[in-house]
């Protein structure tokens, strides 16, 4: 296949002026953009492409008038560094081209032998032609002889060839193997090459890492294609309100299964309401952070839903985490209250003055009615910490709006229904827990939780069968 681009004289003049300012050739400028483009498209730090050499630079009298094919092809090894400036990269490439003159008559097969390479050294070729053949034929034609329009057609054995013709305009001729490239891909490649050249000329001191392959319009198209349409939020209700709505709709449906424990939607909602009212009585309010240390049982789901209902955001504290990590999370999060089951966090150094609430205390005296919602969509829903594999764990804050949107999206792509039973196995300090917990409870599905013990494959298989897990 073939694809052509033409830069008019004004654009060519800008490139030529820039090359002179940088003390490089126009050929080097095009090579610099092409090498960077190949590096970005292939994802390799070091790339190679072929470049044709005129072969007529030898100091032989009359060599320019001699007939014959003197051109040769040499490999250009390019490793653009993201931290280097455009100017630095082009100067390095110009120096490389000058050094290659020593080898301009060396056959390519000799270079392959030196490199210990049996196959091709490169799979793209750049052919730069700055001799105005058409103009020379026109001026040198004898009387009565005229030449028609000259068309240059490059045919090579390489999958991709870029032919560059410099005259009154700059023509870029792409020849490509249709079994490897589509016309649309080559068209985008050409557009990217022009955009890179524009940025080279506009800001020669910028780093190569700041060079973009796509212009703003192309970037917008890529982003639009990669982003799914915004989910349809059918109501402004937050995640805990959607759960309340579901509990009113299917009060007797199973909500949580943990071992021998069973909670219906009505029971889960009532117990979460009691704890939420108790938290409100303790002064918990929107914007506050409530730490939660609890074992893997129904109380975990009750407590999480209660904190959301209270308006505060929760900070999950897996009691199986190392004491030092838990202490850091408690200190770093700046929590306003720590809620924990008895016997947990006994070896963790807690900040002085941190209010605590034990989950063993009786909450029967508190209302089972839904508390008035005080949280806004922008208020904190939960603060979760990263693994800390690159250093200290980092806290990430998620708002109620994000949790609500995620519940809608997850329920949609998983096609959740009230008939589903969803396996909940992730620690609640891991973001995978959010996907396994809240979307199912917003649509009336049942959570099948593992307890504190880890399941082997046989136990997992048996539980999936026995509990009728569907997801």
Description:
With 471 residues, the protein is α/β, with parallel strands linked by helices. It folds into 2 domains: 2-226, Nonribosomal peptide synthetase, condensation domain (Chloramphenicol Acetyltransferase, 2-Layer Sandwich); 239-467, Rossmann fold (3-Layer(aba) Sandwich), CATH 3.40.50. It has helices at 9-22, 26-42, 86-99, 108-114, 133-140, 183-202, 216-226, 239-249, 265-281, 298-310, 323-333, 400-413, 432-443, 457-467, and strands at residues 2-7, 47-53, 72-78, 124-129, 160-166, 170-176, 254-258, 261-264, 289-293, 313-316, 337-340, 356-358, 380-385, 395-399, 421-424, 446-449. The strands form 4 sheets. It has a 6-stranded mixed beta sheet with strand order 1-6-5-4-2-3. Strands 8-7-16-15 form a 4-stranded mixed beta sheet. Strands 10-9-11-12 form a 4-stranded parallel beta sheet, with helices on one face. A hairpin with a 2-residue loop joins strand 7 (254-258) and strand 8. Helix 12 crosses helix 13 (432-443). The chain is elongated. The two termini are 48 Å apart. The mean pLDDT is 88.
């Amino acid at each position: 296949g073939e694809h052509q681009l033409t830069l008019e004289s004004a654009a060519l003049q800008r490139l030529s002026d820039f090359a002179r300012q940088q003390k490089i050739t126009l050929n080097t400028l095009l090579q610099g953009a092409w090498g960077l483009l190949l590096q970005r498209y292939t994802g390799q730090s070091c790339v190679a492409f072929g470049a044709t050499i005129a072969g007529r630079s030898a100091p032989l009298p009359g060599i320019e008038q001699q007939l014959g094919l003197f051109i040769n092809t040499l490999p250009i090894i390019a490793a653009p560094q993201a931290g280097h400036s455009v100017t630095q990269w082009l100067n390095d490439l110009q120096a490389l081209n000058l050094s290659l003159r020593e080898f301009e008559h060396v056959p390519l097969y000799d270079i392959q032998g030196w490199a210990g390479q049996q196959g091709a050294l490169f799979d793209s070729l750049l052919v730069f032609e700055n001799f105005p053949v058409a103009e020379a034929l026109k001026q040198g034609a004898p009387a009565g002889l005229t030449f028609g329009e000259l068309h240059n057609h490059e045919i090579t054995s390489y999958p991709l060839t870029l032919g560059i013709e410099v005259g009154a305009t700059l023509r870029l001729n792409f020849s490509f193997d249709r079994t490897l490239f589509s016309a649309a891909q080559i068209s985008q490649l050409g557009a990217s090459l022009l955009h890179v050249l524009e940025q080279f000329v506009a800001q020669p001191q910028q780093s190569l890492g700041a060079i973009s392959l796509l212009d703003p319009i192309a970037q917008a198209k890529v982003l639009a294609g990669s982003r799914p349409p915004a989910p349809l939020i059918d109501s402004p209700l937050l995640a805990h309100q959607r759960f309340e709505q579901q509990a009113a709709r299917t009060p007797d449906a199973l909500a949580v299964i943990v071992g021998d424990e069973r909670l219906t939607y009505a029971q889960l909602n009532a117990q979460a309401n009691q704890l939420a009212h108790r938290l409100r009585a303790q002064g918990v309010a929107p914007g506050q952070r409530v730490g939660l240390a609890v074992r893997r049982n129904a109380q975990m789901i009750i407590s999480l839903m209660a904190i959301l209902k209270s308006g505060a955001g929760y900070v999950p504290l897996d009691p199986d985490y190392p004491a030092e990590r838990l202490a850091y999370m408690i200190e770093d999060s700046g929590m306003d209250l720590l809620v924990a089951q008895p016997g947990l966090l006994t070896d963790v150094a807690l900040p002085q003055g941190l209010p605590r609430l034990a989950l063993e205390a009786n909450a029967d005296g508190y209302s089972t009615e839904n508390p008035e919602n005080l949280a806004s969509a922008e208020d904190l829903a939960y603060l979760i910490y990263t693994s800390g594999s690159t250093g200290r764990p980092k806290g990430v804050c998620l708002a109620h709006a994000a949790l609500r949107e995620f519940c809608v999206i997850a329920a949609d792509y998983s096609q959740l229904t009230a008939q589903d039973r969803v396996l909940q196995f992730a620690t609640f300090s891991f973001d995978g827990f959010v996907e396994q917990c809240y979307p199912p409870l917003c649509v009336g599905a049942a959570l099948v939780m593992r307890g504190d013990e880890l399941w082997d494959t046989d136990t997992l298989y048996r539980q999936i069968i026995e509990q009728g897990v569907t997801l």
